[in-house]
Amino acid sequence: MLSPQSLSEGDRRLVAAWAADCAERVLPLFEAEAPDDDRPRDGIARARAFSRGELDAAGEIRRRFVAGRAAQSARSPAGKAAAWSAGQAAGVAHMGAHALGAAAYAAKAAELASPSGGETEVQWQVQHMSRSVRTALRTLPLLGEDSSGPLGPGLLASGVLGETIHALQRTLTDIEQN
Q: Which of 22, 45, 91, 130 is deepest in the core (most CB within 10 A)?
């Protein structure tokens, strides 16, 4: 049985584009430090290609860690977080919950680069969710409720990443109720 964090392939394609948008906004933080390392940019491009149906999930599952490994090329915490955001966006082909990981790492990168950057980034992310992306993301279990994927206990569930995902999920619930 698939994890409830997987999402259907159609929903993964929807949220992959949004995750790529989130990661791309902070990509300059990484590229300023490692201009010759194109792995995060390539991961974002692959997430977009997957969202358009140009790549299949199986091929992307095998390559999902490449963009995140580029964090080793960054010097600053913000640059590393930007690479991890791209890695999470690339991972959406495998599991839809990685879209929230891409958003959380993007917000973390923005916060590390500028004190008010994280909050501004989360506001942008919410404003740029289409209705179909919001609907798909609302089907994911709340952070910490299901241990079968990235929203289970672990890195995304703690610290600023966990706080950001909680905030995004609360906002999705609030939007649905209004």
A: 22
Q: What proportion of the chain, given as a percentage, has pLDDT over 90?
A: 81
Which letter does DSSP use for residue 73 in this model?
A: G
| Domain presence at residue 2 | no
- Has residue 161 been placed in a domain? yes
Pairwise CA distance, residues 153 & 171, whole Å? 21
Res. 68 pLDDT band, cuts 50 70 90: confident
Query: What is the torsion angle, in degrees rounded to the nearest 10, for the CA atoms of residue 60, residue 62, residue 64 and residue 70?
Result: -130
Give the range of the structural domain holding residue 113, as residue numbers without chain letter: 9-177
Nearest to residue 84, comparing CAs of 150, 36, 149, 134? 150
**Would residue 73 count as lying in a domain?**
yes
The Cα–Cα gap between 98 and 55 comes to: 17
The answer to whether position 1 is within a domain reads: no
* Res 1: pLDDT: 53
| pTM of this structure | 0.95
Q: Number of folded domains in the chain?
A: 1
CA atoms lying within 13 Å on the CB side of residue 90? 26
- Angle between helices 77-90 and 39-51 in degrees, nearest 10: 30
